[in-house]
Give the backbone structure.
Amino acid sequence: MNALIPPLLALVLSPLLLGVINRTKARFAGRRGQPVLQLYFDLAKLLRKGAVYSRTTTWVFRAGPMVGLAAALTAILLVPLGALPAPLAFGGDLVLFAYLLGLMRFFTVLAALDTGSSFEGMGASREVLFSALAEPALLLGLAALARRADSLSLSGIMAAVSPVAWGTGGVVLALVTAALMVVLLAENARIPVDDPNTHLELTMIHEVMVLDHSGPDLAMILYGAALKLWVMSALLAGLIVPLRSGKVWLDAAGTLGGLLIVAVLIGIVESSMARLRLLRVPQLLVAAGALAALALILVLR
Amino acid sequence: MILALLLVPLLAGLAAFALRPDKLRRAVLVLAAAAHAALTAGAWTRPTMADGSWLALDATGLLFLSITSFLFLATALYAVGYLARENRDARPEMEESFLFSNVPEAVFTGCLLLFLAAMTLVCVSQHFGLLWVAVEATTLASAPLIFFHRHHRSLEATWKYLLICSVGIALALLGNFLLALAAHPGNAELPLTLGALVEHATQLQAPWLKAAFIFLLVGYGTKMGLAPLHTWLPDAHSESPSVISALLSGALLNCAFVGILRALQVCAAAGWAAFGQELLLGFGLLSMTVAAVFILGQADYKRMLAYSSVEHMGILALGVGLGGAGALGAMLHAVNHSLTKAMLFLVAGNILATYRTKSTTEVRGVTRALPVSGALWVAGLFAIAGSPPFGLFLSEFTILKAALDQGRPVVAVVYLVLLAAIFIGMATIMLRMAQGEPSSKSVRENGWAVAPPLLLGGAALVLGLYVPPALSHLLQQAAQTFGGL
Amino acid sequence: MNTDLLLILVALTNLRVLGSSRLGACIRTTAVQGVLLGLLPLLVNPLTFHTLVLAAGSVALKGIVFPWLLFRALREAEVQREVEPFVGYNLSLLLGVAAIGVAVWVSRQLPLPGAAPSSLIAPVALFSILAGLLVIISRRKAVSQVLGFLILENGIYTFGVGLVRETSFLVELGVLLDVFVGVFVMGITIFHINREFDHIDTDQLSTLRDWRR
């Protein structure tokens, strides 16, 4: 029963994470900001609407959001919430996790290309470039953690994080945390890689790819994106809150607190930094990869 | 005694920075050079032994100190005439005719004397750390000298010299640290002095010792101009004033070689002589090959002389690499090469001052325009190429014989082919310059400008005909320390 | 602060220099590296007068004097960033990571003395040496090349302080003095390069070569 807690929490609470980020940004900007539950309202509204499909699109365009959401839903089954293990945990699930994210991105890109719009093609090419650079950082970081924990499963990795582990191998954990933070920002289209609120298609990356989706399709995309943010934040939260008390509710609350910290952190980053020039983004991602590689080398030593 | 050797140029150098009158400053330069030479000559009369102290004059040190000191005396005399001739206001550059001016003469003279002090320290230091400090000091003291003519080409040469040599020397520092690691047999600590390391050589840890030798070889080899680390050398030699080129080629490169010899000495004592010798052999042949390639068809005669220095450093490495009689030949070769090359650079300076170009194709008829310098130029060609009766013939032949005696015909053949190629390359260029209708008016030659090269050339000739017993004894002593006869 | 953490910070400063185009940031990063390395003797050696002087001298030179000299050169040259290096920043970073790998691999082959204060000393020292060489060959600006030299020197210093116990006091001072004069002379040369060429791009320093056409 306890195994179902992480995915259930993800299903219910993931849109809230975006609400927290937006609230943080609003507070920093001196605004009151939209309601914390705004994404829930948006989803409900979109689900009631119908979808419009361009005549030039094919089944790929319609399949994109569904496959994306399906991949995200599978991913939440693999990700533990701090000490709470995931319902699906087996050796090598971290590779499956990385490639589920990859599948999600792949279909979003395909759907974007299927529209034949030049803007969406541009966004797709950027997305692919950046994720190609972010993926090594993610995998190297996870590999470093896996080597540390001597387990190829995300749940095993998270179980091995503890205050003691931070004391002895804190440097490695800190390096991986930093690398994963950058990957999270890049994968979820946050500042400084991408600006989710931009209104200029030329500068968009993720947003521009989903311009043509509407109604329930858009709802699936938004919900899928929220789940993706949740799973990656959950990994980070598991790292930065090394609470392993053995009491289910205490651990769950601790990790939820960690998620809250991550969300606020993203909000602070978004408020304090400007979006990087597109040319500089690869540098940031390569730097993240370098940190993760350094961590891996330190663990392998 | 050793302290006096160090202090004379050091104090004179500091004084030269402060002295205002030119005549007085030049007198200080010559007096300091003479005093230094006299002190060095005095050192020959005492038996020299390497003991545990940091500063001592052993055979190798004394040999290279004598070369340095003698060469410095000759170049100091030449410098007096040179500085008097140099126009000190801004003037048009001779090849590209833009305006430039010199580094102030006080700075030049001061750095020259500090350069001597640093080179002396290289020769007398028995401690590997101190040796490193001294070699790096020679780089720093000589950088302003290369930049004497303040224009963009000399600046380029200075920058390359500073950066490449500093990086090389930094690697030599790593070699020192590796040597210190090698000197940790068990719990005992050995000081990094030559005496202590040689005495306890069998206790040194072999892997670290080998690594240390490689880094010291690469580091000091950069400074010595062994290919492929020689790239700074042609630039620095061609752009610095000829006095400085002579000192760089004849004295500085040898000083870097001392660093390598010290490392080899420890290796040899530890029973790893063959390892170091093979490396030196390879570097030696490579340097000769690179020099041969670049000498053929060289368009700038000072660069040609610089590549010839690369060649002769290669021969030194080759001789020491062969060991036995080859090491002895290499020691003799160091002496002869320094004398001959310094003479050639000084003569090149005279040619440059008259013809105002460094191009090998534009200079014709040196023997007629400048009778004494022209004769020295032709004699220098035969001397540097190793023809009898000059000293280089003797040393090159000794090295060849060593290669043959040790049953290394391939090395001997490659060595001969390269020597022949270089001889052809240099002869083509130098004879063409010497003969023909003079492309410049003939000038009355200044005594200050021809006496020092005559002195050096005479010494090279005498050494070809007769090696004094004291010198040959010293050469043998020096060669013995790193696996010579 | 433990030695491992300090050494990893040193490695990170190397990566930062490899990946940054702003010369000012690079100089500051090198200064941070200098201060960190200046503290190294205090961590690995017993606290004696010798250690204190060495640490103070290193911090003063590597952390304050060198950055000051370089900033002065930078101000005179009026340049802010490295333009079009021979090797791009991303590639430099990747090469840097590869260099870490090489450094760790080489260090594992070495029969290091058992009493080394940290198993990271040799890898980080080698990495700094490689990173310094990489900066020297891949950048155009004279200031960057001096920075590369300093990083190289720092790597060798790390090796010396960390692994070689008893080096002589006088020699250490001599080394520091030499490096100081070296950087000072290089600074003067940069000043002249700037005056002569109106910039400090060293790829313009290519008049001298063989076989001119």
Q: What stands out?
A: The CA atoms of residues 131 and 187 of chain A lie 7 Å apart. The radius of gyration of chain A is 19 Å. Chain A touches chain C through 16 residues (CB under 8 Å). DSSP finds eleven helices and no strands in chain A.
